[in-house]
């Protein structure tokens, strides 16, 4: 009952703001069909769909940031014919009995993704990124429209606004300008900081024209070789030249650039007329969910061909028409045949649709381990690994090696050693300490097949293949006594946790 | 260990089969010394050991003393094995090795902040906002010189201490450092120099073979042509070989004669230098050993510079000089470039706290081994130490020289996507006088 009241309020508010599309397509279903058709025009027939279990694993990882529990898998299997759509609605819009949990998890999962978009791995940051992540999480939980979020980032009035993003990325107009154009417009201008760009059309005055919008933000670091404020807002000096605030794709500086420059920049940046804003946004969401952008070289949008660009522009337009509603865009993408396609191996052509395995993030690794291994997660249990520092340790170590796109596996030997021999794994395969092993091995209701199957479901969200079952049965049968046989389940669990499948999303 | 039938169908890697066949299984210790000896007999390819002096050591208390000048303070100069070349009295051991050491006394850089200067000296590139994530020297060398078949990584970093979080950058995790921690200074154990997570989970080394078998079975389940799955398998296989061979025994420092261990110094840096030699012997192309704080000292000597530097040198000098003689005795010095540097030098003027502050205008580094021709001084500072009076050397020049010293063409590029990135930042010229 209360849900329908909430929905009613939601609809009337939505209707007041975004008259038509929102009500007609409250769960992104129409947009999803449109994407399916548009994709077929570009790529031809979609590949075969993935299995149900693969789909469940995918959406749980993508939307709430961890693998599903065995009971969530069972629940899904009872949902009926349109179970995939229902599950997406449950996880994206928090429909159903676990509303609180899913809403919280999906907001924090999105915030983590976007924190990495805003501050890519490898960036030397000034301070902790937690403030920025919290800011993002609040915005996603409130379902703040995407253009509004980005406007707040673009029109900051102090280095601490918008989660302190300005300060984090270096606290200079030039570093902010480089990041904003990369994040929001899908163009890399940094080369033009020192000279006109050698490969694209960007000129030095494009770069510094953008940096000039931020010339009067305080809190810049002292860097004698960097930009110098001129004392006037909307104006900046670099190596003897003065540049006035100018937006991209314009030849001349703004009139009266000192008048509220950042408010005007933010409005231009996020407007529907901006040629790159919405297109870059939908491309980023597509990349987060599918692995590869609709146009793969996501921060060099200038280089997309006409067909790719047209798809992005059209989808971007739909996103804008729907009031930049992030959750509906996500639901729409997740309901397409493209999202649901089976993972394909690499093809020779860039022209066709490809879906590779994705590598899960450091936080997803830990949160999935927590789920799979039944680690204690209660917020008041101080012994839970989440709160003892085990999570931070694992996330930091894995965070040292993150790929540039969701498809790059970038971990090295230290990361592999941690997964193989680290404390979480050691506990997990120890019969006395592992909750999962105890539950599985000591349950009187399970025969050995059932035990193997449950371990597979808990860790990999799939059932063992016939060949795997045969191998494992023989492996167990070869154990001389009951003790070594029980211990062998620990070895099987070790292998599941260290298999490529665990850290990849099929 | 008897294997079950299905496991025989797993394509286990060659090494496991060899280990099982020739040594009767994989239980650890008995065959390790053999393996280590075998590793020692191979002639290793070129390598580089970086002695990283994070914090910025004072040139005037080390390589460029100024006795008799007010700026020189109480530091005395001593003669060395090469007539005419003098060092600070803090480095008597190094003085005996001078024939193999080339001093560069004319470093001239522009970064006086720890973070930015570290970035400059560790990557050879000036720090710039955004854009390119340049790899550190170790990753650059690993990328160039790492042997394909080694179970050890191409870049090992011992007890690292640096200002700023730098890594392999665009060269990726294959070339990021394997960190050897050194949390304690306990002189009697090697527990202070270990690789994290090298012990087999569950404490049973025999489990390793079974685990590899199970893993191979599970790998069939992942789409095998997926680049991510292929990469995962190769990284895991390497990590498993590290665990299995305990890093080819490199970390068993107690195999070394007591006198040699004593000569290096029974401290983290000294034993780290010894470990560096053992790693180089086993084909690791780049090892970084950091000396940041010894006892109460630190290279960042804003206060009490003279006692701080002398306490640092008590640790540095025996380790450094023993490393050079040890490498020479083993015939490794010609193939191993040893670089000593920090991120900048210290102000010649002594501040009111008897300290010296950050100074990038005129400072020193030292090179030995590889193609470096030792027993010489390159460049010169003015009598007061305030400026370079002869042959200034930039970070790019130094990088070009280091690469040439290892036989790498310093005019070459790194491929990053479709875009070539020069190995050395613009304007770097190798110093021919230093290259034999």
TrEMBL record, chain A:
It comes from the Bacteria. Residues 262-348 form the DUF1553 domain. Residues 33-217 form the DUF1549 domain. InterPro entries: DUF1549, DUF1553. It holds the Pfam family PSD1. Keywords: Signal. Residues 1-21 form the signal peptide. This is DUF1553 domain-containing protein. It comes from Stieleria neptunia.
Automatic annotation (TrEMBL), chain B:
Pfam families: DUF1501. It comes from the Bacteria. Signal peptide: none annotated. Gene3D superfamilies: Alkaline Phosphatase, subunit A. InterPro entries: Alkaline_phosphatase_core_sf, DUF1501, TAT_signal. PANTHER family: BLL7424 PROTEIN, DUF1501 DOMAIN-CONTAINING PROTEIN. This is Sulfatase.
């Amino acid at each position: 009952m209360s849900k329908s009241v909430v929905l009613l309020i939601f609809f009337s508010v939505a209707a007041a703001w975004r008259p038509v599309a929102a009500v007609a397509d409250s769960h992104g279903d129409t947009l999803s069909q449109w994407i399916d058709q548009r994709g077929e025009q570009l790529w031809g027939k979609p590949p075969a769909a993935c299995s149900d279990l693969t789909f469940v694993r995918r959406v749980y990882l993508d939307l709430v940031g961890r693998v599903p529990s065995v009971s969530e898998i069972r629940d899904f299997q009872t949902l009926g014919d349109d179970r995939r759509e229902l599950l997406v609605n449950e996880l994206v819009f928090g429909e159903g009995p676990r509303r609180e949990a899913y809403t919280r998890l999906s907001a924090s999962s999105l915030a983590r993704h976007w924190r990495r978009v805003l501050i890519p791995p490898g960036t030397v940051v000034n301070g902790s990124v937690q403030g920025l992540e919290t800011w993002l999480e609040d915005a996603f939980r409130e379902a703040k429209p995407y253009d509004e979020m980005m406007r707040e980032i673009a029109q900051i009035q102090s280095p601490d606004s918008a989660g302190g993003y300005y300060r984090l990325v270096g606290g200079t107009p030039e570093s902010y300008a480089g990041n904003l154009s990369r994040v929001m417009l899908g163009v890399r201008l940094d080369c033009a900081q020192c000279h006109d760009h050698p490969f694209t059309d960007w000129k030095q005055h494009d770069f510094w024209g953008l940096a000039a919008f931020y010339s009067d933000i305080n809190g810049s670091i002292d860097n004698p070789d960097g930009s110098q404020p001129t004392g006037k807002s909307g104006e900046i000096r670099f190596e003897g030249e003065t540049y006035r605030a100018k937006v991209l794709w314009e030849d001349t500086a703004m009139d009266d650039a000192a008048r509220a420059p950042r408010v005007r920049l933010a409005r231009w940046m996020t407007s529907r007329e901006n040629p790159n804003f919405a297109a870059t946004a939908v491309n980023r969401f597509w990349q987060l969910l599918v692995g590869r952008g609709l146009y793969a070289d996501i921060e060099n949008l200038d280089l997309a061909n006409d067909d790719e660009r047209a798809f992005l522009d059209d989808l971007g337009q739909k996103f804008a028409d729907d009031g930049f509603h992030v959750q509906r865009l996500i639901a729409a993408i997740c309901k397409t045949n493209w999202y649901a396609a089976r993972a394909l191996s690499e093809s020779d052509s860039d022209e066709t649709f490809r879906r590779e395995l994705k590598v899960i993030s450091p936080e997803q690794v830990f949160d999935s381990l927590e789920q799979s291994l039944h680690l204690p997660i209660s917020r008041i249990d101080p012994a839970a690994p989440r709160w003892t520092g085990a999570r931070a340790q694992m996330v930091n170590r894995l965070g040292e090696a993150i790929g540039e796109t969701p498809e790059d596996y970038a971990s090295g030997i230290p990361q592999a050693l941690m997964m193989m021999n680290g404390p979480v794994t050691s506990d997990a395969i120890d019969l006395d300490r592992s909750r999962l092993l105890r539950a599985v091995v000591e349950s009187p209701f399970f025969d050995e097949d059932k035990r193997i199957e449950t371990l597979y479901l808990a860790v990999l969200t799939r059932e063992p293949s016939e060949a795997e079952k045969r191998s494992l049965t023989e492996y167990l049968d070869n154990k001389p006594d009951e003790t070594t046989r029980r211990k062998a389940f620990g070895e099987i669990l070790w292998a599941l946790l260290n298999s490529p499948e665990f850290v990849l999303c099929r | 260990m008897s294997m079950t039938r299905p496991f025989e169908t797993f394509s286990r890697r060659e090494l496991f089969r060899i280990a099982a066949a020739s040594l009767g299984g994989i239980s650890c210790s008995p065959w390790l010394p053999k393996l280590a000896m075998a590793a020692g007999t191979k002639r290793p390819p070129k390598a580089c050991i970086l002695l990283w002096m994070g914090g910025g050591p004072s040139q005037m208390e080390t390589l460029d003393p100024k006795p008799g000048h007010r700026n020189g303070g109480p530091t005395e100069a001593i003669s060395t094995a090469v007539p005419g070349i003098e060092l600070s009295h803090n480095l008597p051991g190094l003085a005996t090795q001078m024939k193999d050491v080339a001093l560069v006394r004319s470093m001239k850089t522009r970064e006086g902040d720890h973070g930015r200067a570290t970035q400059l000296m560790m990557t050879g590139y000036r720090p710039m906002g955004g854009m390119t994530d340049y790899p550190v020297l170790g990753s650059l060398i690993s990328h160039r010189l790492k042997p394909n078949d080694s179970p050890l990584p191409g870049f090992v970093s011992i007890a690292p201490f640096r200002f700023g979080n730098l890594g392999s950058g665009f060269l990726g995790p294959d070339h990021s450092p394997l960190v050897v921690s050194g949390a304690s200074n306990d002189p009697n154990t090697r527990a202070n120099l270990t690789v994290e997570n090298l012990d087999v989970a569950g404490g049973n080394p025999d489990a390793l073979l079974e685990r590899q078998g199970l893993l191979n079975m599970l790998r069939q389940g992942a789409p095998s042509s997926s680049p991510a799955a292929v990469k995962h398998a190769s990284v895991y296989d390497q990590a498993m070989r590290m665990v299995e061979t305990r890093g080819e025994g490199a970390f068993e420092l107690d195999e070394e004669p007591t006198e040699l261990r004593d000569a290096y110094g029974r401290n983290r840096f000294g034993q780290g230098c010894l470990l560096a030699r053992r790693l180089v012997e086993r084909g690791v192309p780049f090892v970084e050993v950091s000396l940041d704080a010894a006892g109460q000292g630190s290279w960042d000597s804003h206060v009490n510079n003279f006692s701080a530097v002398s306490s640092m040198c008590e640790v540095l000098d025996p380790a450094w000089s023993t490393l050079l003689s040890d490498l020479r005795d083993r015939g490794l010095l010609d193939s191993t470039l040893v670089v000593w540097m920090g991120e900048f030098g210290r102000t010649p003027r002594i501040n009111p706290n008897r300290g010296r502050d950050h100074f990038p205008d005129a400072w020193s580094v030292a090179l030995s081994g590889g193609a470096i021709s030792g027993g010489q001084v390159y460049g010169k500072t003015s009598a007061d130490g305030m400026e370079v009076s002869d042959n200034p050397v930039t970070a790019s020049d130094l990088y070009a020289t280091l690469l040439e010293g290892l036989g790498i063409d310093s005019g070459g590029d790194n491929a990053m996507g479709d875009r070539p990135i020069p190995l050395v930042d613009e304007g770097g010229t190798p110093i021919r006088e230093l290259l034999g």
